[in-house]
Every structure is written in C-alpha cells, then in structure tokens.
Amino acid sequence: PSRPVTILVGFAAGGITDIVARTMAERMKDTLGQSVVVENVTGAAGTIAAGRLFRSAPDGYTVLIGQWSSHVGAGALYKLPFHIVDDFTPIARLTIAPLWIMGRSTLPAKDLRELVAWLKANPDKASAATTGVGSGAHLCLLDFAIRSGTKFPLLPYRGAAPIMQDMMGNQIDITCIEASQSLAHYRSGKLKAFGVVSDKRWFITPEVPTVEEGGVAGASMPFWHGMWAPKGTPADAIAKLNAAVIAAFDDPAAKKRFAELGHEIPARDQLTPEALRAHHQAEVDKWWPIMRAANMKAEGQ
User: Fold this and answer.
1) Cα(170)–Cα(162) distance, rounded to whole angstroms?
2) Which of 150, 153, 174, 194 is the most exposed, fewest CB within 10 Å of its CB?
3) In Å, how far are 51, 73, 97, 182 from 54, measured between CA atoms?
4) Euclidean distance between CA atoms 285 and 301, whole angstroms
5) In 3-state terms, what secondary structure has residue 85?
6) Ramachandran class of 189: left when φ > 0, alpha when ψ lies in -120 to 50, beta otherwise
7) Backbone torsions φ then ψ of 2, nearest 5 degrees
8) How far apart are CA 154 and CA 159, in angstroms?
9) pLDDT grade for 84, boundaries at 50, 70 and 90
10) Strand pairing of 88-97 and 223-230?
11) Tens digits of residue pLDDT in 109-156
C-alpha cells in the first residue's frame, strides 16, 4: 500500500471487537509499511459499518473487522442492500472467544444440571438478559432454551455492562455473554458461570465445564471475528492483507494480548480467505433458520 489502510469496526471503542481491531492494526502496520487506522462506525448491530465497506472502493485500503453479531445475526435481522456473505471478499478469520451461561450469585443452582432443573420448575418466571434482538447472547439463550427444554422470557439490554450490573443486583437471573467481559465478576464470586457454550472448556477457566458436559447436548456457539474487504478487491491486495494478519498473529506481543483476553488464534490452515468464507457460510446456514423460525425482527421492521 502507498497510503494508510482503514479498518472499520461496527461497534463502540473499548468493546471487545474494537480491542481485537486495534491489536491487529498495531501489528499489521509493520508488515504493510503504512499506518493502519481503526474507525468506529456504530449502529444497527454493525451493519452500518458493513454498508460503508459495501460502498467503499475495492482497492484494499478499506477493510472491516466484524464478528458473529454483525456478520451472522444482523444479516437475518435487518433488510440490507447487500448480502452479508456474497457481497464481500473474505481476508482472514480472526480470534475466537467463548460465550458462557452466567447467573446471579444468589441463584440456588450450583451447576448447569441444577440450573436446568430450576428453570423447569419455574417456567416463564426466570429472567434472562440479552444484548439485543438477534445478538449472539440472544441466539445463545434461545438455543439453550430449545436444547434444554426450558422456557424463560428474553429481556433486551443495550450492552453487557448493564446486564452484569443488574445480575449483581439480583434483578436478572441468567445471561449468555462473551466470557472475557465477565471473567472478573466470576473470579470475584459476584456471578456464577454455569457452562461454556463451546465444544471444549475455556483455557482461562478449565474448572468450568462446557454446557454439553452439563447435560445440554449440542450447545456450541464460539464467538468469532473476521476481516473482510469490498467485493472485487484485487487478489494481490487480499494476499498482502492476509499475510499481514498472519504476521500479526505470529507477533509475541499480540499472542500475549489475545491470551490475556482469553481469545484463541485459529490454526494456520484456518487463516485463509477460503476458510473464512466456508466458516461464515456454515454459520449463516446454521443460525438463520433458527432466527426465522423464532420470527425475529429488528425494532421498527
């Protein structure tokens, strides 16, 4: 590149996707030989930023870092002028973080089996918080309810911070949330962690079982990130951006930062553009039918 590269992020500064983007940007600039600037374009679950990318010149100078909510959930929820898979060029998968089922510390249940039993004994009485309609938290809790045979109302919040505040204040019973955001509250005993929504335990808290180990089969929803360019971006630009991603992940400081966050770096064979496209399509194929069966709609649509 002969000028700075811009990374669009559809979520607020200081959030987990923004942290991932800024960590990547700091290392990618060394490989690209140009500054890499992060620009937060918030709103509509990340789709306003995706719209910016869709309208950007396909020259490699504007890319976007998104995640499950912006590139799976929002694609089914909003009426968009683009297709979230077909109208963008994948660059690379980025970090993967677990979601986990959490509850207030005063819940009588000690583990996931007891939580399911308590929910079944109190149908429609427990309160469960999400970070909005169609969010990862929403789909995680909906899938958990279906798989566990439980029923509870889903209450939309504006973000993870107010959910945790209300859970610590005993106003909300459970949620499904990105684990690194709530790790400190778990470690302090202010919140309970009942199960990791993944096919393996989280390396940060190996003592917390997976939801499947807790008796709810098939529950797995890794919270993944990816990087995309506009459709039609030349192959050589995509190759250079992909190489910069791989070099960033090889950087010891970046590895340390992501380990501190509790994020996993994909295996090298999963860092190709083709691997991101295949994974993205598989996630859409899995979750969109569930969302449509639940008749999910964005506010005002």
Assistant:
1) 12
2) 153
3) 5, 18, 26, 33
4) 22
5) coil
6) left
7) -105, 5
8) 14
9) very high
10) antiparallel
11) 999 999 999 999 999 899 999 988 888 999 999 999 999 999 999 999
Please name the residues in contact with 117: beta carbons below 8 A apart, sequence gap of 6 or more: 109
Beta strands (DSSP E) in 105-235 are 128-130, 154-156, 174-178, 191-196, 223-230
Q: Is 112 left (phi over 0), alpha (psi -120 to 50) or beta?
A: alpha
Residue at 262: amino acid letter: G
Work out the number of other CB atoms within 10 angstroms of the CB of residue 146.
16
What CA–CA distance (Å, rounded) separates 131 from 70?
A: 13
Q: Which amino acid type is present at position 276?
A: L
Cα separation, 199 vs 197, whole angstroms: 7
132 token code pair: 């909005």
According to DSSP, the β-strands at 154-156 and 174-178 are unpaired
